[in-house]
Amino acid sequence: MICYYNNSFLEKNEIKVSPFDRGFLFGDGIYEAIRTYNSNLFMYEEHLARLKRNLIKININYEKIDALEGIIYELIERNNFSDNEVNVYLQITRGESFPRKHEFPAPSVSPTIFVYALPIDTKKLQNDEGISIILKKDLRWKRCDIKTINLLPAVMAKQEAVLQQAYEAVWHNGNAILEGSHTNFFGVRESRVYTHPLDNSVLPGITREIIKKLCKNLNIPFVEQPVLVAETNLYEEFFITGTTTEIKPVIKIEGEILGGGKPGKISTNLIEAFTELTKNYYGN
Predict the structure, then answer these.
(1) Residue 15: which of 88, 84, 91 has the closest Cα?
(2) 96 CB neighbour count, 10 Å cutoff
(3) Residue 147 annotated among the catalytic residues of the structure
(4) Where in the chain are the domains?
(5) Looking at the domain covering 2-120, what would its CATH class be?
(6) What is the pLDDT of residues 199-244, one digit of tens each?
(7) How, if at all, do strands 131-137 and 246-253 pair?
(8) Which CATH superfamily is domain 131-279 in?
(9) pTM of the full structure
(10) pLDDT, tens only, 36-52
(11) Choosing from 147, 158, 248, 252, which is the catalytic residue?
(12) Which of 121, 11, 15, 115 is nearest to 65 (CA)?
């Protein structure tokens, strides 16, 4: 498989990452995950805008950012993935600096850029059956709006979910439900969709914004107000979203079956609308 690494297209086993790269040493970097529909990068401009915002937030200056779209499409072509839908992973770190110091390196240090793509097995995308989640007390840092590569809390939470045969671990702050380890979280109550408002405790998901637009198109009230842990029993249905997750109805929380173990009406309607949107997607 061919990847893109620091201005070169290389076989993955040819890539050598320095042990002094700040991404390796500190988790000092930003990432994006993008996918295609109909061989077109889905919501690319929105992903690029979020990437730019996050790089600014942590003071990484990557001057070639506007060339990334062409790089990604060339990467897909070089791997002969043009006839497949693909997931794309893109990572930018602050670069290599020696010796190891917490403060930023000199401005002359160039960021490290890494991109790879993998085909999606669309047969494995099962949105209609529903998933199970667990709830976890949020122990992360206070800037969860930044899509940083420093993901150890998310890794540990996701692994705990897997060990409990659940799809996702969803964070809460003791009162309000925030988001999943790699997803946004939604509840449906009295035909209204609720989700945590955008602040430092949740990531501004691209699919989250699509849900907001689809709700408007379907005349479903979209309320940016958190679901409270103590009030989950008042909601008729729940679902999570993400770039690779798409929309997945939640039918079990902490082992408790919801809605008779079947996805609810609002979740199903949103999945149908999202499927129609992506089926007819040919670029921004």
Answers:
(1) 91
(2) 20
(3) yes
(4) 2-120, 131-279
(5) alpha beta
(6) 999 999 999 999 999 999 999 999 999 999 999 999 999 999 999 9
(7) parallel
(8) D-amino Acid Aminotransferase, subunit A, domain 2 (3.20.10.10)
(9) 0.95
(10) 999 999 999 999 999 99
(11) 147
(12) 115
